[in-house]
């Protein structure tokens, strides 16, 4: 406890010295115009202690795509940002559980506290504003600066920046936006708001979309956040908002882990008309409006069924509605790896699964991992792979939108087979007790091989089981 207190005290002093003021936030088809098709690469490193938690405050004429090879960093889906003049390529997480886009600034000067696993990772690149002729600090008077400092105090951002009274009265102060701090469930970043050109490259040679004056965080110091993030929330700072598709929508189809080490294929992320057109036949669940965190995507979980059991596991009302303070609902979040469920519902689901699974428990794996239900499952007989008898798990969201969690997205093999047996663990986790915010989180691992459609215009989220590798190839994101 004393070492943890020392770390937190050090970072508190670090925040005071690096940020003047801080703010905290909860995390062959016809071409259709006004759409972007981007490539997401899968980062596979099952690090059981690094999943992000978000329970605390944090006009193109052609379809475009952007594909980057896989980088072995932390678990998540990476999107490449082409920033600056001349361009600098920075890989960051695609995160529906936050708004701000930020990148590490300076390969040598970027400092991350408690990021020892990444200090020697030469694949993590930083952005250098001094090398870009189009880069400049954002002004204190812009709506982006006001937004990122909106929860600081009653003073406006230009007052915080030290503007003179005369310029404040005239609205003519051009001092830079004060430094900020942005918090996630497991980390903090501090930096400055920066503007530069963002380029999106098309699949057709010579097709490029440029977003001038794109606003992002230029971050020099972080705590447990070694890689940048592209926030896909609904706030003004978010990627969809700045690219101009906030009133349309986007969709993604996350590749399974088996493609994690394949640099020739990436998950399709589609932004704009193509993402939501011709999708009305799919099951959609309404987005719930959170007064506490209005910029993030909440849905309501109505029930859960296991296998062929006739009765569903009872779901608490907190997973489909908010309390008087705005807590509750289920957050759908690409930046949280595994699905998190509240107690006692989580334990009740474990009990139902135990009652229908007859394989022996792998207690030693459970003891050294963060997973609560692991089994030794027969893997082969005379070299023939066997089908296991692990039951399916189906999530039933509001408005009869059901999602059968694809095979391999609930119980996952934790290693290679040994003596004809492979250990599979349930990749769900319980929510931390006593935290404000969402009652549960629908994580990215359980969204693999499912097309998830964010229809922002109609405020709904749709689901469609899909072979995401085939979808990647259909969009030209699979290099053979």
Inertia-based shape? globular
Radius of gyration: 23 Å
> Count of helices?
9
The level of helicity is: 10-25%
Question: Strand tally, please?
Answer: 28
Which structural class fits the helix and strand makeup? alpha+beta
Low-confidence stretches: 1-33, 44-73
GO molecular function: aspartic-type endopeptidase activity
InterPro entries: Aspartic_peptidase_AS, Pepsin-like_plant, PEPTIDASE_A1, Peptidase_aspartic_dom_sf, Plant_Aspart_Prot_A1, TAXi_C, TAXi_N
Domain Peptidase A1: 77-464
Family: Belongs to the peptidase A1 family.
Give a quick rundown of the structure.
One of its GO terms (cellular component) is extracellular region. With 480 residues, the chain is α+β, with helices and mostly antiparallel strands. The protein has helices spanning 2-18, 143-148, 157-160, 165-170, 239-243, 273-276, 345-356, 363-368, 468-474, and strands at 35-43, 76-83, 88-95, 102-104, 111-113, 136-137, 180-183, 188-201, 208-223, 229-231, 249-253, 267-272, 284-286, 298-299, 301-306, 330-332, 339-341, 374-378, 380-381, 384-385, 393-397, 401-404, 411-413, 421-426, 428-430, 440-442, 450-455, 460-465.
Can you describe what's shown?
The structure is a single chain. It is built from nine helices and 28 strands. It is an alpha+beta fold and 480 residues long. The strands form six sheets. It has a 15-stranded mixed sheet that branches. The longest helix is centred in the N-terminal third of the chain and has 17 residues, at 2-18. The N and C termini lie far apart (52 Å). One of its GO terms (cellular component) is extracellular region.
